[in-house]
Write a structure and sequence with these properties.
The complex is a heterodimer of chains A (461) and B (519).
Chain A: E1 8-9, E2 15-19, H1 21-25, E3 30-36, E4 40-45, E5 52-56, E6 63-68, E7 75-77, E8 80-87, E9 98-106, E10 116-119, E11 128-131, E12 140-141, E13 150-152, E14 158-162, E15 172-176, E16 182-186, E17 197-200, E18 205-208, E19 214-218, E20 224-229, H2 231-236, E21 241-243, E22 249-252, E23 259-264, E24 269-275, E25 284-285, E26 297-298, E27 304-310, E28 315-321, E29 327-333, E30 338-344, E31 352-358, E32 365-372, E33 378-385, E34 409-410, E35 427-430, E36 438-441, E37 445-448, E38 453-455
Parallel strand pairs in A: 1-3
Antiparallel strand pairs in A: 2-9, 3-8, 4-7, 4-9, 5-6, 5-8, 10-11, 10-34, 11-12, 13-14, 14-15, 15-16, 17-18, 18-19, 19-20, 21-22, 22-23, 23-24, 25-27, 26-27, 27-28, 28-29, 30-31, 31-32, 32-33, 36-37
Chain B: E1 33-35, E2 37-40, E3 43-46, E4 50-52, E5 62-70, E6 73-80, E7 84-90, E8 93-100, E9 106-112, E10 115-125, E11 131-135, E12 142-144, E13 152-153, E14 165-172, E15 177-188, E16 193-207, E17 210-215, E18 225-232, E19 249-256, E20 264-266, E21 292-296, E22 299-305, E23 322-328, E24 343-345, E25 353-359, E26 362-367, E27 370-375, E28 385-390, E29 402-403, E30 414-418, E31 421-425, E32 429-430, H1 439-445, E33 456-459, E34 464-468, E35 476-481, E36 492-497, E37 502-508, E38 512-517
Parallel strand pairs in B: 29-33
Antiparallel strand pairs in B: 2-3, 5-6, 6-7, 7-8, 9-10, 10-11, 10-12, 12-13, 14-17, 15-16, 15-18, 17-20, 18-19, 21-22, 22-23, 23-24, 25-26, 26-27, 27-28, 30-31, 31-32, 33-34, 34-35, 35-36, 37-38
Classes of the chains: A mainly beta (461), B mainly beta (519).
Chain lengths: 461, 519
C-alpha cells in the first residue's frame, strides 16, 4: 500500500483538527501525515466517535503500531515521515464528527532540579518519565531501564535495577549520569536474581540482595564492593531498606513482623529500632499498590520515614521516626488513598518528604508533592491521571501521566537541591511585633537592619 | 549640647527625607539621608523588621505577588521564574503551580466573584532598545477558581459535532407554528455562556400543536462545562439558510443541568422567547492576553494586548500588534467579550496601553505618559466617548496604587507613578507631585525605561505607602508616611534597604505588607 493520496499534514504542535463525519465516511478512514526532524515522543487522542489510530512508516505500508485513541499514548518516533490512519473496528463509518489532537515531547531533554523520575516497568524498556513539581512532564529519558527499584544521589547520579536487561543483562544494576544518560552496567560478583533493595548515603549507593543478604556499595565511578552480609535478610528476606547519610547504619524490615531494624554496618549489630503498634501478620511495611518494595527514607537529621499498610482497614500510615526510634509523627492515609512511594523533597531538608499518593482504588489518579511531616499537609502538590500500562500515557485533558506503578525518586541534575538559598529570594513581610528587631531571611539567616541612619544638612549624622 | 559660638537648635518635627536641590537647601527639620527609618507622630525610629512569611518549603525566585481575595478569605497569587503561578492559601499551604507559561515574565490580575482572572504578559524591546509591555502573543486570559485546580483559559469553545436534530414530538404541546432554528449553548463552571453550536443547527417546521424533541445534543469534552441551554429563533417566515443571521433567544425550560443528556423535549411560544442569546455568536472563545485588568461597571477590562493569530489578521501595514486596544466585557459576564464591539481603541501614538482603573464612575486608561477617560453610555463599549485627560502624565504597568488589600481607588483619589513623580489623582493630577521633596532622586536616578519594576502599595489605615524601585535600586523600597497630610509638603519620605532584591509587594490581612524577592 503506497502512502495515501489524501492526508492532512500535522504542521503545528500541539495540533488539533476537527474531522467531520462527512470527511471520514468517504473511505471509512482518515489520514494525517507527521514529519519530525528529531526523535520525539509522539501522541494523539480523539475522545469521541473514533476508535483506532494506526501509525505507518514513510512507505505508508508498514504499520508500526495500532491503538485505541481514547487516551494519550506516547510512542517514540525517530526523525522521519509518518502516516497516521484513523479508523473504526469493524471498518465502517463514524457516528459523528470528532476532534483529533496530537502532541510531542522531546527525548532526553533537560528537566528542573527536584523533578522525579518514574521509570516504565514493562519489558519493552520504553524509558523513564520525568515529572516536574507541577505535574508537567518535560521529557522522557530513554536510557532508563524498566525497573521497580532505584535511587538517586544529590550529585545527580542514579543507580537503578535493570529488570529486563535493557542494557544487556537482566537484574544488573545500571549507573546513569546526572543527565540520565547511560554510564555503565554493574554486576556484583554474586549477581542479583530478583529485585534488590537500593538506597544511598550522601556519596554512594547501597544495594542489598534479598536472597543472600549481601550488601553492596556502588560508587559513582562504578566500583562495586561487598560491604557485609546481613544474616536476618539472608534468612527471612527484606521489605523496605534505607541507609543513613554517612553509610554507617542500615535500616530495614523483614516481612510480616512490623519491626524497623537498625543495623550498624561496621559491627554487624542488629537491633530493634521501632515496633509498629497494632501490626498484624497480614499487614506489611512499605508495600506499593502493586506489591513492589517501598522505601525507608533516611533524612539528613538521621530521622527516617517509611509507612505501613493496615490490611484490616485498607488504610496506611506514614511514620516518621527519630534515629533513636521515637515516633515523631504519623500521618494516616484513609482508603482509597494510599502511599505508593516516598523520596527526598530535597537533599538537606528533614522537615519534608516527597510523596506519591494514589487517590483511588484503581490507582488511576495520584498526587505528587512535598509533604510536611509536622502538619501532614502537602505544601506543594500536583494531581494527575496515571496510566496503567507502559508508555506513560495521559488521560482526558492531561496529555501525559506516569505509569501507575514503578519507583519514584527525586533527581538533582545540577547537584543541588539543598534548602532554598537566601539568594534565591522568597516571600517576606514586615513584622511590627517581631521580638527580635532583625531582618530574617530564608533559610535561617538573621541580619541586622542595615545601618538605620538620619542626617540633616545642619547637624550631620 | 551647645558648642562654643553655636546656638542649640531644637527640631520639633521630623519631616522626612529631602533630596531636592543642593544639600544646604534641605530644611532643618528634614533629612538629607533617611535610611531604614519610619515615622511616628513627630518622631522617627528604626523601621520594623523583615520576617519570613512562609512555613515549610518556601517559594523562591518571586516575580510578582497579588492579594487574591476569595469568597472564603484572602490569599496570595505568586509568580515565580519559569512562568509558574502558585496560590498561597496560607503561609503553610500552597496550591500549584496553578498556571505555567514559560514565557510569562509578569501577570495582571483581578478577582471577580471570588475567581481570579489572570493575564500573562512580558516585556518587549522596540527598535530603539526601549522596553514596552504587552500580553504574550497567542496567549490568553485565564480563570482560576481558587480551589487548587489548574487555571484554564477564560471563556471556552461552543458546541461542536454532528448536526443538532429537532423533530415534532408525538406529545401534544402549546407551540407556535412555522420554521424555527434551535441551537445549543454551553455554560461553564464560571457561568460563561459559550457561542452557539454545533456547526449545524436544527431547523424544524413546528406544527403548532406538538412539543419539539431535540436530540443529538452535543456533550462537551471539557469537564468545566456544567450545563447546556437550548436557544431558538422565533418563527422564520422565509429561511435563507444563513443560520447565524437570525436572532436567538434562550428557551424557557430549555436548560439541561448536566453535561450528559443528549435529548430534551421543549414547549414554548415565540412570545416566551425574551432573553437574547444572539450576542454569544460574536464572543471570543479565547480572550487575548494583555498587561492589566480591572473592573468597570461590573465589566472586565483588559488592556495592552499583543494579539493572537485571530486578532492580528488584517492589521494595517506597519502595525504588528494591538497595543492600543482595550477589551471590555458585557456587564456581569467577565468572560463574555464581543469581538465586534467590546473594545476601546486609545489614540494610536505608538505607545502601549499600560494600565486601567475605574475612578468616580469613569474608566481611565493609561499609557506610559498619557491618560484617557471613557464613560459608559449604556451602549456597546466601542461607542463610548473618549477624553484625552493628560498628554504628559501616565502610569507604568504596576503604577496605580493598590490600596490596602483591594483595588486602586482610595476614598477619593488614586496614587499614580509617573515619570515626573508620584502623583495624586482626583480627577486631575495634583501638583506639586507628592514626591516633590525627593524630586532629584526621582528624576535623576530612576531609569524611565525600567519603570515596569515600580509597584506601589497604599495602607490607608496606617497612612503609609511603599514603592518598589527599578534597577539598580531593587534592594530598596521608598517608604512614605502621610499621617500629617497627603500633600507634597506634609508627606514624609524614607528609603528602606534590604539584603534581598525586591520584585513585588502587596498588602494582605488589611495592613500586612508582603514583600517578594527574587534574590
Amino acid at each position: 500500500m503506497p502512502p495515501p493520496s489524501s492526508f492532512v499534514d500535522i504542521t503545528t504542535i500541539p495540533f488539533s483538527r476537527v474531522v467531520t463525519k462527512v470527511e471520514f465516511d468517504v473511505a471509512n478512514e482518515f489520514w494525517f501525515r507527521f514529519i519530525t526532524a528529531t526523535d520525539v515522543a509522539f501522541s494523539q487522542v480523539a475522545f469521541t466517535n473514533i476508535e483506532f489510530c494506526n501509525i505507518y512508516a514513510s512507505d505508508g505500508t508498514t504499520r508500526l503500531v495500532r491503538f485505541i485513541v481514547r487516551d494519550w499514548f506516547w510512542w517514540k518516533l525517530t526523525a522521519g515521515t509518518y502516516y497516521i490512519k484513523l479508523d473504526m473496528f469493524p471498518v465502517g463509518v463514524v457516528p459523528g464528527d470528532f476532534t483529533y489532537q496530537a502532541d510531542t515531547r522531546p527525548l532526553n531533554s533537560t528537566f528542573e532540579e527536584g523533578s522525579v523520575l518514574i521509570p516504565d516497568d514493562s519489558g519493552d524498556n520504553y524509558g523513564g518519565v520525568i515529572v516536574e513539581s507541577d505535574g508537567n512532564i518535560p521529557t522522557i529519558a530513554t536510557a532508563v531501564p524498566a525497573s521497580e527499584i532505584g535511587a538517586a544521589l544529590s550529585n545527580g547520579y542514579v543507580l537503578i535495577h535493570d529488570r529486563y536487561g535493557k542494557h544487556g543483562t537482566s537484574n544488573a544494576l545500571v549507573l546513569l549520569n546526572p543527565d540520565l544518560t547511560f554510564n555503565q552496567k554493574i554486576i556484583p560478583t554474586t549477581p542479583f536474581t530478583g529485585f534488590p533493595r537500593i538506597s544511598h548515603s550522601n556519596t554512594d549507593f547501597y544495594a542489598v540482595n534479598q536472597s543472600t543478604g549481601q550488601l553492596w556499595k556502588v560508587t559513582t565511578a562504578g566500583v562495586c564492593t561487598l560491604v557485609t552480609t546481613i544474616a536476618e535478610i539472608a534468612a527471612d528476606g527484606v521489605g523496605p531498606f534505607g541507609v543513613n547519610s554517612d553509610g554507617t547504619i542500615a535500616y530495614f524490615s523483614i516481612p510480616d513482623d512490623g519491626i524497623i531494624r537498625k543495623y550498624i554496618i561496621a559491627t554487624d549489630t542488629s537491633s530493634v529500632l521501632y515496633t509498629i503498634p497494632g501490626f498484624a501478620p497480614e499487614d506489611i511495611v512499605a508495600n506499593t499498590y502493586d506489591s513492589n518494595p517501598g522505601e525507608i527514607i533516611v533524612l539528613p537529621d538521621g530521622s527516617l520515614v517509611t509507612w505501613w499498610n493496615d490490611f484490616s482497614t485498607s488504610n496506611c500510615a506514614l511514620i516518621h521516626l527519630s534515629s533513636a526510634g521515637v515516633l515523631l509523627h504519623t500521618i494516616p492515609f484513609i482508603s482509597p488513598e494510599t502511599i505508593d512511594h516516598l523520596s527526598y523533597a530535597n537533599t538537606t531538608l528533614s522537615t519534608h518528604v516527597k510523596a506519591w499518593i494514589f487517590l483511588e482504588f484503581d490507582a488511576s489518579r495520584s498526587k505528587l508533592g512535598n509533604l510536611n511531616l509536622s502538619t501532614g499537609v502537602f505544601d506543594t502538590s500536583a494531581t494527575f491521571d496515571n496510566f496503567f500500562s507502559n508508555q506513560n500515557a495521559g488521560k482526558n485533558n492531561n496529555s501525559f501521566g506516569p505509569a501507575s506503578s514503578c519507583p519514584m525518586f527525586t533527581l538533582f541534575p545540577a547537584g543541588g537541591g539543598g534548602e532554598p538559598d537566601p539568594t534565591d529570594g522568597g516571600l517576606y513581610y514586615i513584622n511590627p511585633t517581631k521580638a527580635q528587631r532583625h531582618d530574617s531571611y530564608y533559610p535561617d539567616v538573621e541580619k541586622k537592619i542595615p545601618n538605620p541612619t538620619i542626617e540633616t544638612a545642619l547637624l550631620g549624622e | 549640647m551647645a558648642l562654643r559660638d553655636h546656638d542649640s537648635f531644637v527640631i520639633e518635627e521630623f519631616n522626612g527625607w529631602w533630596e531636592r536641590g543642593d544639600v544646604e537647601s534641605c530644611p532643618a527639620d528634614h533629612f538629607t539621608t533617611a535610611l531604614n527609618v519610619q515615622y511616628f507622630h513627630s518622631g522617627v525610629e528604626t523601621r520594623d523588621p523583615l520576617d519570613k512569611y512562609q512555613v515549610g518549603l518556601p517559594l523562591n525566585q518571586i516575580l510578582r505577588i497579588y492579594n487574591y481575595v476569595m469568597q472564603s478569605g484572602q490569599s496570595l497569587l505568586v509568580l515565580t521564574t519559569g512562568g509558574k503561578i502558585y496560590h498561597l492559601i496560607h503561609p503553610s499551604t500552597v496550591h500549584g503551580p496553578i498556571l505555567t507559561i514559560p514565557a510569562m515574565e509578569d501577570f495582571g490580575f483581578v478577582a471577580i466573584n471570588g475567581r481570579a482572572y489572570i493575564t500573562p504578559f512580558k516585556s518587549y524591546l522596540d527598535v530603539n532598545g526601549r522596553h514596552y509591555e504587552l500580553g504574550i502573543m497567542n496567549e490568553f486570559l485565564y480563570v482560576y477558581k481558587g480551589d487548587g485546580t489548574p487555571a484554564r483559559k477564560a471563556a471556552g469553545p461552543g458546541p461542536t459535532g454532528s448536526a443538532l436534530v429537532a423533530a415534532n414530538s408525538a406529545t401534544e404541546g402549546k407551540m407556535d407554528f412555522g420554521f424555527h432554528l434551535i441551537a445549543v449553548v454551553y455554560e461553564t463552571d464560571t457561568g460563561y455562556l459559550t457561542a452557539l453550536g454545533p456547526e449545524i443547527f436544527a431547523g424544524l417546521e413546528f406544527t403548532g400543536t406538538n412539543k419539539v424533541d431535540v436530540s443529538n445534543i452535543p456533550v462537551s469534552p471539557n469537564a468545566y462545562v456544567k450545563k447546556r441551554h437550548l436557544v431558538s429563533t422565533k418563527w422564520i417566515p422565509e429561511y435563507n439558510n444563513n443560520q447565524e443571521g437570525y436572532q436567538f433567544f434562550f428557551i424557557p425550560e430549555g436548560n439541561i443541568n448536566n453535561n450528559t443528556d443528549t435529548t430534551k423535549t421543549v414547549e414554548y411560544f415565540d412570545a416566551d422567547l425574551l432573553s437574547d442569546a444572539s450576542h454569544l455568536l460574536d464572543n471570543f472563545t479565547e480572550i487575548p492576553s494583555g498587561v492589566n485588568l480591572t473592573t468597570y461597571h461590573s465589566r472586565l477590562v483588559i488592556v495592552g494586548e499583543y494579539g493572537t493569530n485571530e486578532t492580528l489578521q488584517d492589521l494595517p501595514d506597519g502595525i504588528t500588534d494591538n497595543r492600543s486596544l482595550a477589551r471590555v466585557s458585557y456587564p456581569g459576564e467577565p468572560e463574555a467579550i464581543s469581538k465586534v464591539d467590546g473594545l476601546l481603541i486609545a489614540p494610536l501614538d505608538g505607545n502601549a496601553l499600560t494600565n486601567c482603573q475605574e475612578f468616580r464612575d469613569i474608566l481611565y486608561l493609561f499609557k506610559a505618559s498619557r491618560t484617557f477617560a471613557y464613560s459608559d453610555n449604556n451602549d456597546e463599549p466601542s461607542t463610548w466617548q473618549e477624553e484625552v485627560l493628560d498628554q504628559g502624565v501616565g502610569a507604568p504597568v504596576h503604577g496605580v496604587a493598590m490600596v490596602l488589600d483591594s483595588g486602586g481607588v482610595n476614598i477619593d483619589f488614586l496614587l499614580i507613578i509617573d515619570w515626573s513623580g508620584f502623583m495624586l489623582f482626583n480627577g486631575t493630577y495634583s501638583r506639586p507631585e507628592l514626591s516633590w521633596k525627593i524630586e532629584d532622586f526621582w528624576m535623576r536616578t530612576l531609569e524611565r525605561d525600567e519603570f515596569r519594576y515600580i509597584q506601589v502599595v497604599n495602607d490607608s489605615l496606617s497612612k503609609k505607602i511603599w514603592i518598589t524601585l527599578p534597577p539598580p535600586w531593587r534592594h530598596h523600597l521608598i517608604h512614605a508616611d502621610y499621617g500629617n497630610g497627603m500633600d507634597a509638603k506634609n508627606i514624609r519620605w524614607a528609603r528602606w534597604v534590604f539584603d534581598a532584591k525586591i520584585s513585588s509587594i502587596c498588602m494582605i490581612e488589611t495592613t500586612k505588607l508582603i514583600i517578594g524577592t527574587i534574590e
